[in-house]
């Protein structure tokens, strides 16, 4: 696959740093090629609907980026914004309309939702076939039992990077820090599927540093800026930093991961930076999942290499 070749070339230029931005550009180019073919051969245009409730500035930036990249891939983007005070019934009615709309192949409801809404009920109202986040309980169950599912974008992106770097993952010790439904748990499921020996660590884990030192693959999805230090890392390990933390630096802010990059980069065999690591892969995989959902909806063969 071109995206893999592209990433390998780039990784070689800066040894040890995994260029998620370049790899994601390759994935998006693959998606765009398939989208163009769907259009020319079948007259079908994949469509992604993104729903944002409220006005969180970080979410607004993220939703705008998704819209831009969706259109760049040749797909249709439908953006729906509801006010912070919208009722759950209003959101449910919108989801029902999107479920019934044949031009919409993927639906993403940006999380977190305002506190007065029941996020589980909202997610489970999405047609599982259009659930491009892979958060619906049916997709969670399908993934957990090794059946064909929609796979959550962030863990899918992490797995693509790991496979590109390491090839066969079987038998490797993988430690995932974090057990959220959107990152930690599905990441653990995917690594188990790859025959890794998986440990899931969390806030009650005893001696996290010692647990991390056993990891050939370390995935950090904690939400604590620079918590994982270089001396927690097994020399040569592959480190995937999912964390996106905005911290103050002087009178400005910057993004840092959950891993202390400066102390980790000399110990790890390879590491993803923040920004430019997992984040761009998440959006690329969202587009890949939308394409996959569109192919399935139309009874067409799915592109290879874009899902597991
Ligand atoms: N790059 C991307 O595309 C994405 C990035 N993110 C980022 O990833 C990070 C994690 O997100 P998400 O999974 O939603 O976060 P959650 O807050 O839902 O989960 C955090 C997890 O980390 C664990 N944890 C918290 N503190 C510690 C600690 N001191 N030691 C060990 N474990 C701890 C928690 O444990 P417990 O369960 O015991 O509370 C929990 O399981 C965030 O920085 C987020 O911004 C998220 C989604 C996509
Ligand atoms: N239903 C739902 N699905 C999600 O997948 C989802 C969500 N809700 N809520 C929020 C989190 C967070 N998330 C990110 C995706 C991309 C970047 C990303 O592209 N980051 C860039 C930097 C962007 C910047 O500079 O701000 C990078 O790491 O290089 C970040 C974060 C998806 N999430």
UniProtKB/TrEMBL annotation:
The protein, known as: Bifunctional protein FolD
Function summary: Catalyzes the oxidation of 5,10-methylenetetrahydrofolate to 5,10-methenyltetrahydrofolate and then the hydrolysis of 5,10-methenyltetrahydrofolate to 10-formyltetrahydrofolate.
Gene name linked to the record: folD
Assembly notes: Homodimer.
Domain Tetrahydrofolate dehydrogenase/cyclohydrolase NAD(P)-binding: 152-296
Source species: Paracoccus mangrovi
Pathway: One-carbon metabolism; tetrahydrofolate interconversion
EC number of the protein: 1.5.1.5, 3.5.4.9
Top-rank lineage group of the source organism: Bacteria
InterPro entries membership: Aminoacid_DH-like_N_sf, NAD(P)-bd_dom_sf, THF_DH/CycHdrlase, THF_DH/CycHdrlase_cat_dom, THF_DH/CycHdrlase_CS, THF_DH/CycHdrlase_NAD-bd_dom
UniProt KW keywords: Amino-acid biosynthesis, Histidine biosynthesis, Hydrolase, Methionine biosynthesis, Multifunctional enzyme, NADP, One-carbon metabolism, Oxidoreductase, Purine biosynthesis
Domain called Tetrahydrofolate dehydrogenase/cyclohydrolase catalytic: residue spans: 18-133
Reactions the enzyme catalyzes: (6R)-5,10-methenyltetrahydrofolate + H2O = (6R)-10-formyltetrahydrofolate + H(+); (6R)-5,10-methylene-5,6,7,8-tetrahydrofolate + NADP(+) = (6R)-5,10-methenyltetrahydrofolate + NADPH
Family per similarity comment: Belongs to the tetrahydrofolate dehydrogenase/cyclohydrolase family.
UniProt GO MF annotations: methenyltetrahydrofolate cyclohydrolase activity; methylenetetrahydrofolate dehydrogenase (NADP+) activity
Binding site for NADP(+): 178-180, 244
Pfam families listed in its UniProt record: THF_DHG_CYH, THF_DHG_CYH_C
């Amino acid at each position: 696959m071109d995206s893999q070749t592209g990433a390998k070339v780039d990784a070689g230029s800066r040894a040890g740093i995994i260029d998620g931005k370049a790899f994601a550009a390759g994935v998006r180019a693959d998606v765009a090629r398939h989208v163009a073919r769907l259009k020319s051969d079948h007259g079908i245009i994949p469509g992604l609907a993104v729903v944002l409730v409220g006005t969180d500035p970080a979410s607004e930036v993220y939703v705008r980026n998704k819209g831009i990249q969706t259109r760049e891939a040749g797909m249709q983007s439908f953006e729906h914004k509801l006010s912070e005070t919208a009722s759950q019934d209003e959101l449910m009615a919108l989801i029902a309309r999107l479920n019934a709309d044949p031009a919409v192949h993927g639906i993403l409801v940006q999380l977190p939702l305002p506190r007065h809404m029941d996020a589980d009920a909202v997610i489970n109202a999405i047609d599982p076939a259009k659930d491009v986040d892979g958060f619906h309980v049916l997709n969670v169950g399908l993934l957990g039992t090794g059946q064909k599912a929609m796979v959550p974008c962030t863990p899918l992106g992490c797995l693509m990077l790991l496979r590109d770097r390491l090839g066969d993952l079987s038998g490797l010790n993988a430690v995932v820090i974090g057990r959220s439904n959107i990152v930690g748990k599905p990441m653990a499921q995917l690594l188990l599927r790859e025959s890794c020996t998986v440990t899931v660590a969390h806030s009650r884990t005893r001696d996290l540093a010692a647990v991390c030192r056993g990891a050939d693959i370390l995935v950090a999805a904690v939400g604590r800026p620079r918590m994982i230090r270089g001396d927690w890392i097994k020399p040569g390990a592959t480190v995937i930093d999912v964390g996106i933390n905005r911290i103050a630096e002087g009178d400005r802010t910057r993004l840092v991961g959950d891993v202390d990059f400066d102390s980790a980069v000399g110990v790890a065999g390879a590491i993803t930076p923040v920004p430019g690591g997992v984040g761009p892969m998440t959006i690329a995989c969202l587009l890949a999942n939308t394409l996959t959902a569109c192919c399935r909806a139309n009874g067409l063969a799915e592109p290879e290499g874009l899902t597991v």
